[in-house]
Amino acid sequence: MSSHYEAPIRKPLIIGDKNYHDVTVDVARPVEGRANKQWWIAFSIALAAFLWGIGCVAYTVGTGIGTWGSNKTIGWAWDITNFVWWVGIGHAGTLISAVLLLFRQKWRMAINRSAEAMTIFSVIQAAMFPVFHMGRPWLAYWVMPIPNQFGSLWVNFNSPLLWDVFAISTYLSVSLVFWWTGLLPDFAMLRDRAITPFTKRVYSTLSFGWSGRAKDWQRFEEVSLVLAGLATPLVLSVHTIVSFDFATSVIPGWHTTILPPYFVAGAIFSGFAMVNTLLIIMRKVSNLEAYITIQHIELMNIVIMITGSIVGIAYITELFIAWYSGVEYEQYAFLNRATGPYWWSYLLMMTCNVVSPQVMWFKKIRTSIIASFIISLVVNIGMWFERFVIIVTSLHRDYLPSSWTMFQPTFIDAGFFIGTIGFFFVLFLLYSRSFPVIAQAEVKSIMKSSSETHKRIRDGIAHDTHSHPENH
């Protein structure tokens, strides 16, 4: 039995009559050719949002974070909500790439590059919120434990916020190296196809002298496995540490041991939803429908459905713990979430995160591109509201009734958040025009077992063999 054996019932992962040369041409076309109309439309919308965000950030820096809706009771509101949301999205990229690589899942090969890029770009967006929340972003380097001339000024190693700095910077570093390493054969492919000396020089530099020798491939695979082994526990550790920002406090609704696994499940859930969103856009704007197939979308939807169910169980467990604890403050916090002034956000959270993924049980829905796109957006909205519910509804009713208040976001809050979404898509769309979004070398390695052409030939041979038993 070949190591590439695949059950006959599995659908092809590469459709169309593609050969090795076709894969190279298709993957290089978005980089070498001109952008299509869909790309320009998507880029224009993202750029407009990004520019609006820049304006809001400039106004914030020039005026101060008093322009935000945060107040003395709800000191964390949209900024930390957005921070946790973006960090969560950054999870699935490395998870898809690293974990599926370790488990030798072939369906990862057409989508891992987009997922890894998503991790890098979303962590950049996440980092901006705490930096600007400091009020003096030009002093952001103070969070790093570096020698300084300010005497006793030193970071607080007991603070979970500092643990965030270490966790996220480590995660970003490993993800960046993992992503870059995977790109080396593709950079070399673009280098060899380059027409102009400048382009050739650029991709030659980026490819680090990749020659395609057997030794290169051996080292490439070894390093990829090591990095995947490093990145996998980081996926779990980063959001666990982010949850410590809350779990180590004494605020009712935050002080619970379920938060780490709850946060990790939610992060994977929202991350997969964002990857699905990006893949559906990417296959259209880069004409990659033959490689990012309905089969890929369906598998992603199955993961979303499973992780959505885990998140639903976490919500129920959280309610049970609050009731079983017998602590009246804890019980009130959860009762207030469901029936208090922010009941609508709790309802949105439950509907989007618990109910909407369950429609994926129907094959017709999970194999529909439009339905998948809508549900992935709904899940992302729901996960944002999950963070909003955790943060704002817990803070607006603290131990002192005299400090109870409501949070009202300003247009600067909204503009900053929308600006980061625009920045994320600007980076992603520019990336799709500069770097190969499909790992062409890896896709070629599964063509003999997973392409539509191969399956048709195999089925034809099987049919002939069945028709002529003497051939056995």
Automatic annotation (TrEMBL):
The lineage of its organism: Bacteria, Pseudomonadati, Bacteroidota, Flavobacteriia, Flavobacteriales. This is Polysulfide reductase NrfD. Keywords: Cell membrane, Membrane, Transmembrane, Transmembrane helix. It is found in: Cell membrane. The keyword Cell cycle does not apply. InterPro entries: NrfD-like. Belongs to the NrfD family. The chain crosses the membrane at residues 39-63, 83-103, 115-135, 161-183, 223-242, 262-281, 302-323, 343-362, 369-391, 411-431.
